[in-house]
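fold-stage: in
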Amino acid sequence: MAFVQVVQVILIAGLSLVAGILAVLFVIQKAITKPFPVIKRRKEEKHFLDPIKIQNVDFPPVEDAPTVHLSVIIPAYNEEQRLPKMLEECMSFLEEKAKDETFTYEVIVVSDGSSDGTVSLALKYSKRYTVNKFRVLELLDNRGKGGAVRLGMLSARGRYLLFADADGATKFSDYDKLENNMKSITKDWESDGIVVGSRSHLEQDAIASRSLFRTLLMHGFHFLVWLFAVRSIRDTQCGFKLLTRSAAHTLFKNLHVERWAFDVELLYIAERLKMPIAEVAVNWKEIEGSKLTPVWSWIQMGVDLFLIWFRYTIGAWQLCDQNKEHVS
């Protein structure tokens, strides 16, 4: 058999195998996957503790009109060591802005099933600033960063909602950059809009300080994000994103992924719904103590990226817009 014929046979066999695997996946995913996420929340997770009055208070219904300008959601899993520095910078910045009476805010720390002193630490800030400005949502089980951010977003009172990582890797004063860009892409909080903090301008410096293996992993992940999900944003993973209340409710009610790749699904949904999105360079520095395991976490995210694309493509996952019935 000629070499060309051998190559053709191999290609046909390979394509047949891939087609067979995709067909099996199609049947399995259609059978086991629900089209819309089921958002579970225990009774104990529907309220927060007022440490001054020593009583539990219910979080407001997500359908309520906003009562503060900005809500800051901080997901925290065993962050007793890194959280204090971040909160000091955050609260100092917000208190300074609040000298202008038109700016009101709240901070919600979401403890994602923490087993250390994260909750006790956060409650000290709640007592210092009162629950009007600082609330603690304690999740009984670890859900993953996306799950923690989602429940924080659905408990918030803000016209605009920012989620920020507990490690303080992003300089909090960069919020002003995000806010200014939000004004350029939306009319108000009732319109959809997302502004994404970005570290892409720091990529060359990061490559210089990383090993070749970690650099290859980074480029591989960026390629998979571009291939399967998000085309308009270079840095999907920076934990500093500002959303209007309208956008937050639509996106987080549709979100399925609760692990590290939730940012990608969030932006994928936003692109599918044609929401205005802006990307803004922010100051960022790497902080020790990351919960990411370099190889295993990248593999998990790679699998999640493929499944995000595959499930939406075959209709196993569907979108529900606030202003429309369903978006296929």
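fold-stage: in (second)
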Amino acid sequence: MTLKNTADRWGAISQLLHWAAVLLIAAIAIIGLTMVDMNNGPSKIKIYALHKSLGLTLLSLVALRLLWRFYAGAPRPVAGTPHWQERIASLTHWALYALMFALPVSGWVFNSSSGYPLQYFGLFNLPKIAQRSEELAQLSRALHEYGFWLLLALVLAHAGAAFYHHLFQNDDTLRRMLPGRRRTADAPSPASLPETPDAN
């Protein structure tokens, strides 16, 4: 497998960035959905801090992934894919990129406008990107929450389409984002081979 993308499949670096983003989104979502119901205390503060740090990591990862995609390009559509499916897939991909940027940024704005400090895994403080404002805090929080549900819906739709192509269309849509070699054409069975006359 090559590091760069080819015309037929995603390269190793694109695959690594893709699946790392999937794991990060899953972790951020699970933490985000559970932390709001926790009782106030040191444990809740730590879980919130982890949620924020993972969100900032996702922001950096998506920026890196976009830069790599512009450099390495993208595979051509799988042969036989209808044009309307290509358009929907492209729009979904760019919507996912936009939301993966917007959610960490809206969380950062909410954190700043609420007057909370922001540390990255306790290593260093990040600057405020907004002045303290109750109105802005409410707006950014709403965008963060509703954006999460939209991101979740798009992720599920994206995954569902990939599995549909894999299970029912039997094409390489999912395979080319997985490690390993491309699927090769099935070898013909002996029964399907033409008979040849005896040499005698």
